[in-house]
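CHAIN AND CONFORMATION:

***
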Amino acid sequence: GNIEDVETLKVMNNLACLAETKAFDTYRNEGGFYKVLQTADRPMKLENNKPKYTKKYRKIVKKFKKAEEKHMKCRERRIAVLGEEHIDSLGSLANLALYHKTMTEIYGKYVGVKDKEEHLKEYYKNFQREYAYHQREAERYFEECIRRRQNVLGIDHPETLKTQFSFAELMHARKQWRQ
């Protein structure tokens, strides 16, 4: 690829990271899902067999989904232009792993919550599903990223070690949440 492609891909990556930051800011500014759930005064309904959430919850989730899509699109473009083993493509893979790790941390706060109000039980079941999904995705992306970085950069490269550390944090947190 030419230099413009590389620059465009860097901008795409920055926009994906910015979308994730903005989604997380919205989540934090809304007071997290605990605060958002306080606006839910009745049980979660199903619409076409899909959960119908409160407006604030939908707004937050939509922003996180948008960030995930941008990370995916950036990775796909980087692979197409630079190849799968390029350091920037590996960076996009790490970004996806870190995105899912962040989502695991967010949903992990709501897993195993006792004394749930009756009308919020379905929300917490959904949080459990989201947590499991993001945990699986994070593990998958971390394992692939570590393997590829070890092959391409070496086992002692700082980026390889950083990815291993983040993966270890994820697995340690998972152990904590299970207790």
Remarks:
- The chain has a mean pLDDT of 88.
- Residues 121-152 form the longest helix (32 residues).
- The helical segments are 3-29, 32-37, 55-82, 87-108, 121-152, 158-178.
